[in-house]
C-alpha cells in the first residue's frame, strides 16, 4: 500500500474512533508535504504499518510498555507533586505494548532526519545511534532514575529554562496562537475534565489553537482553558484520546469510543516523577501547560550545548519508560546480547529510507490525489 492510500485509510479509521477536525487534517497534510521531519512526526500510522515488514527480526524482540511514536520533539518538562522541574517523555498518545526496539529505532530516525534538515544538528549517524544505545543500556543495567533537573543535569536544566520558555515570552506567544470560543461551544465533558485539575472557583476562558501543535495528533479536538489566578497566568489543555495507530496497522480497533487504555497505564508504570495534572478523564487527556510544563521543540533542542549528552539522556529516558513493564528489564537484557552488531544504525538507516521515499511520494501526489 502506498503512502497516500495508507493516509486515506488511516484517517477513515480515525473518523470511526473520534470526532475529527477536518481543517486540522488539511493543515497536517500541508505540513507533511513541506518537510521530511514534519512528515515523519505526522505519520506514526505509516511507521506502524511498515515497521514489521522492514525490521522483521527486531519486531519480535521482547514487548514492553512503549511510547510508540517516539521522536526528538516528544520530550519536555513538567513539575512534579513537590514542585520539582522534571524532564522526560511528555507525549504518550500512541502508547501500546510493542517490541522495545521500536522506540529506539524511531527515536534514532528522528535524529537522523534532524541532522539532515538542521545545519545546527551536527552529530553523525553512528554517534546518534551510539549515544541512544549507550544511554538506554546504562539505565537498563543500573536501574531507572527520573531526570529531576533542579539539583542534577545542569545542561538539561539550562535548556529547559532558556529564554523562549520564560513567562514573559511564553504567555503572549501562546495567547497569540489561540482564538477565544464561546462557552456554549465547549463539550460538557471537556469542562468537567478540565475542571478537575483547576482550582475551585476558577472560571477560565476557552480557546482553540490557530495553528495546532503536535502533528501526530492533528485532527483530534483540542481545547485550552486560560485564566488569571491569584496574580498569575494558568492554562490547561484537553485533547481527545484515540486508540493507538498500532491497532489500525493490525486491522483492529474498529469500534468507536475505545480510547487508548494503555496511555495512563504506561505513564503510571514508568520510572518517573509524575505530573499530578496529567490524566485521562471522560475520553480527554488533560494536563497543565506553562513555561516549564511543555514540550521542547527542535529549534530549541539544536541550541543545546552538548547534543551527544542530550541523545544519551533520551536513550536513558526511553529505558525509564520501558522499566514499567513487568519483568521487562530481565527480558531486555537477555535479548540485547542476541542483537546483531550495529543493529540500531542499520535499522534506522533502513527506516529512514522508507520515510524519505514516502515523503517524496506524498509531496508529489499533492492535494488532489489525497482527496480522490
Summarize the structure.
This protein is an alpha+beta fold and about 375 residues long. Helix content is about 50%, strand content about 15%.
Summarize the helix and strand pattern as letters. Answer: HHHHEEEEHHEHHEHEEEHHEEHHHH
Nearest-integer average pLDDT:
92
Cα Rg: 20 Å
Helix percentage range = 40-55%
Q: Tell me the number of helical segments per DSSP (H or I, 4 or more residues long).
A: 15
Largest sheet: 6 strands, antiparallel
Low-confidence stretches: none
Number of domains: 1
Question: What tags apply to this protein structure?
Answer:
single chain, 372 residues, 3-stranded antiparallel beta sheet, 6-stranded antiparallel beta sheet
Give me the secondary-structure topology.
Elements: H1 3-17, H2 22-34, H3 36-42, H4 44-54, E1 63-66, E2 75-79, E3 85-89, E4 96-99, H5 100-117, H6 125-142, E5 147-148, H7 154-160, H8 167-176, E6 178-180, H9 188-195, E7 205-209, E8 222-229, E9 232-240, H10 245-249, H11 262-269, E10 279-281, E11 284-289, H12 298-301, H13 307-322, H14 328-336, H15 343-371
Antiparallel strand pairs: 1-4, 2-3, 3-5, 6-7, 7-8, 8-9, 9-11, 10-11
Helix pairs in contact: 1-15, 2-3, 2-15, 3-5, 4-15, 5-6, 5-15, 6-13
